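User: Need the bound-state model for fe (ii) ion:
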Amino acid sequence: MITLDDIKADPVFQTLIERSNAYLRTQGYTEHGLRHVSYVAEKAAEVLSQLGFDERTVELAAIAGYLHDVGNVFNRTNHSITGAVLAYQELRRMGMDVEEISTVTTAIGNHEESIGRAVSPVAAALILADKSDAHRTRANRLPDDRRPGIHDRVNLAITDSRLYVDKDERTINLEISFDQRICQIMDFFEIYLTRMEMCKEASTVLGCRFRLLINGLEFLGNLSFSYS
Ligand SMILES: [Fe+2]
Ligand SMILES: [Fe+2]
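Assistant: Bound-state model below.
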């Protein structure tokens, strides 16, 4: 059975990830390189593992996480679909079972905001891991003194972020420390609102409630107030 380690050792994937990141960097996008995909692989696996999914499903989530952004090697637009096709081809070359490839590629094909849905546990875990990777280390610093764009300003303002599962409470929590001297929390929502809504849906698919905390304040969580 193909493992994440086999995929990490494959020079084709390594090149695709590096070239995708290089292309996005020229377009002013945040970091999408080995650091990002390794984080997403690890987090997607962790979420499913903590919720008690079997070992192989956990491994498939890690594989989907590692490969989810390879479609950027062609173009940012529809990179989830081109990435799914690319991953399908390369995983076939490596001899992976088609059932397993389908689980991975359905998740990859559904991680993009505009067209993606949390259609399976692996897709849900991938969405949560990908959308939670917001941190100042991802900001694409400009070579000159131009003012950074909104994505970079928001990422620069995020001094710490943590995604974790609370098994007993059945919650998936995203805690963010945000430096409001660098950027407004409104700016965070301008670019992250759809992503946070995807996280909410993904958590529901996994039988959990999504909680978003910024500087300790709950922006999404339990509604304890009754209107009646
Ligand atoms: Fe992506
Ligand atoms: Fe990504």
